[in-house]
Amino acid sequence: MPGTKRAPPIYSRGGYRLDRRPGRVNLVITWYDTARSRERSISAGSPDEGEASEALDRLYLQSRGAAPPRLGTLVTEAIADYRVTCTHKASYGAICSRLDAVIDYVAGTDPAILCRSIDEEWVEGFRKWYARVPIVSPTGVERERSLSTIEASVAQLAAAINALPGEAARFKAIPSTEVNASPTLRLTIAQLASLFRYAIARPERANLARYLRAGVATWARPDALYDISTDPKRRQWFPEANVLALNPHGRRQTKKYRATIPVARQWRDDLDATEGFYVEVGSIRKAWLAMIEELGIYRRGETGEKLLRRSVSHLARKRIGEERWRQGEIMLGHHKASISDLYALPDPANLGLALSATEAIIDDIEHRTPGAFTAFLPRSKTATPKSRD
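RESULT FIELD:
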């Protein structure tokens, strides 16, 4: 009697297949082991098809070792390999997002296209296609895709191809200096105060208010704001020195350097009342966009979350003065400080002038919006923080 025909795999690659088996929660990876002359299988470690597919990719890459790629590597395979090797990077989410656009274009044109077939002509076709794909906000507002966003995907594809042994991309991304239009919008004190007024008037926007406080107090990039935590294991908050390390312990510094900075007096109570992550959600983007649109501040390409960092540093620069602006560069992470003593950071000769400018900006905001830095306090230390997933 013939055996039961095996169902098609959920995902397969190079002799490895991903299946779902009865009675098993996690998906299973199966392959034929020629050395043992039998089929073998292991758990993929997850019931999620995406995560399990990545586990299969990792196993496949391990089996190939350092062997050169087959002649004619598929673009989709090159991207899958590259994603596996980038999982440890802080920018992994951005890398995947940029490559997702390439995958969509490949799927709609030629799913079997090889890396060696990707040339300037192909890339130009991708640019034209991607330019026609609008960016849609959570509220349904459409805006054109910027040239810099398109080139970021082109550069990421080149990186994926160049990561293959013996391969080299046959095209180049346009340098960012030629496609980036430097944002010119900066918020005034009155406009910053209006952001806080919007947030503290809505208890459900408590995390938006915390994000605003952290942004004004630290001048940090959005990704660093989400990473702020008082968990002792992360070694970020040093209350005895009144210093905050924006880069948690164990995280490798990247080109976007995260500074260690003194903390404004108006923000300290909120940090002291925090246990764990200061912003308790993984993203406030939807709330941010709703706020920007309601307040009528929206300007295409210039009113993202980074507007907070640009505005505060712009205001502080006038207060610090050009001759001492090196302190501002240290706060922004544009210049690495050589100060080894945490207690020395608040000194005027180090970052004290930047601290004073920050506190003065906060005072001006509080004057226009009382409670900007005190609403929703105190925070309960026994409360269970919301999931960051």
